[in-house]
């Protein structure tokens, strides 16, 4: 089955700096890569996603890049703010493929702390 | 408001007891999932169901059971066979198309005493 590795497990940045979280996946058939943000005591929520036919996607201060050949994808947050402090999870799935089931395999999470 | 409701939010159980966690959604989603969240281990898939009356094991199904008798409901039973049941359990749903987004409930925290 799919295996997703995520690094770093903790990340501390100064407000206004950039943060980068990296993930690798094992199954070359995976075609959908979302990122979820989980604030303390709350449910995970989708913040951005990318499909395998796209190399980069941006949404205001966040962006995701995908390298299919190397099987890794990254989350980039620019101009970080205190409200960006949370746990971020990457995930991978095989959407629309027989046996895929749209089930996500998650990374182990990154605790991001934005310091004032 | 549409969404996913999990109950109870907190649950305490004695060793050897079965316990059932409720998950209800009014999003009209076909697919539902149960994940377990432990510190440093991310979210691990327990069971999932793509349609009523059908479900499949995830990566860590041992010691758990589910049912999917109604589209809206996907209860999870943590049995006494689960060796380390203390965890945070998250239910999620997906409409079943290729749009991708998984919607999560607020979770249930189970503590075995």
Describe the structure in your own words.
The complex is a heterodimer of chains A (116) and B (113). By secondary structure, chain A is mainly beta. Helix content of chain A is 0%, strand content 53%. Chain A has strands at residues 4-7, 10-14, 19-25, 32-38, 45-51, 56-59, 62-67, 72-77, 86-92, 105-106, 110-115. In chain A, strands 2, 4, 5, 9, 10 and 11 form a six-stranded mixed sheet that branches. Chain A has a five-stranded antiparallel sheet with strand order 1-3-8-7-6, with no helix packed on it. In chain A, strand 4 and strand 5 (45-51) form a beta hairpin. The termini of chain A are far apart. By secondary structure, chain B is mostly beta strands. Chain B is 0% helix and 51% strand. Chain B is built from no helices and eleven strands. Chain B has strands spanning 4-7, 10-13, 19-25, 31-38, 42-51, 54-57, 64-66, 76-78, 87-94, 103-104, 108-112. In chain B, strands 2, 4, 5, 6, 9, 10 and 11 form a seven-stranded mixed sheet that branches. In chain B, strands 1-3-8-7 form a four-stranded antiparallel sheet, with no helix packed on it. In chain B, strand 4 (31-38) and strand 5 (42-51) form a beta hairpin. The A-B interface holds A 1, 6, 9, 32, 34, 36, 42-46, 49, 89, 95-96, 101-109 and B 31, 33, 35, 40-45, 48, 50, 56, 58-59, 90, 94, 96, 98, 100-102, 104-107.
């Amino acid at each position: 089955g799919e295996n997703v590795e995520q690094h770093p497990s903790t990340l501390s940045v100064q407000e206004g700096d950039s943060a980068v979280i990296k993930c690798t996946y094992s199954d070359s058939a995976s075609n959908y890569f979302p990122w979820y943000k989980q604030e303390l005591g709350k449910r995970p929520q989708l913040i951005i996603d990318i499909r395998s036919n796209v190399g980069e996607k941006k949404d205001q201060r966040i962006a995701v890049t995908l390298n299919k050949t190397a099987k890794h994808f990254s989350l980039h947050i620019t101009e970080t703010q205190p409200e960006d402090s949370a746990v971020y999870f990457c995930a991978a799935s095989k959407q629309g493929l027989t046996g895929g089931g749209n089930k996500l395999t998650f990374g182990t999470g990154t605790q991001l702390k934005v310091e004032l | 408001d549409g969404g996913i409701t999990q109950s109870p939010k907190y649950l305490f159980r004695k060793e050897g007891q079965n316990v059932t966690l409720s998950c209800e959604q009014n999003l009209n989603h076909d697919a539902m999932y149960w994940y377990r969240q432990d510190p440093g281990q991310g979210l691990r898939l327990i069971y999932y169901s793509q349609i009523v009356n059908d479900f499949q094991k995830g990566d860590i199904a041992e010691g758990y059971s589910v049912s999917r008798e109604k589209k809206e409901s996907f209860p999870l039973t943590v049995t006494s066979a689960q060796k380390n049941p203390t965890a945070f359990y998250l239910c999620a749903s997906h409409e079943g198309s290729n749009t991708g987004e998984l919607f999560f409930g607020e979770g249930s925290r189970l503590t075995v005493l």
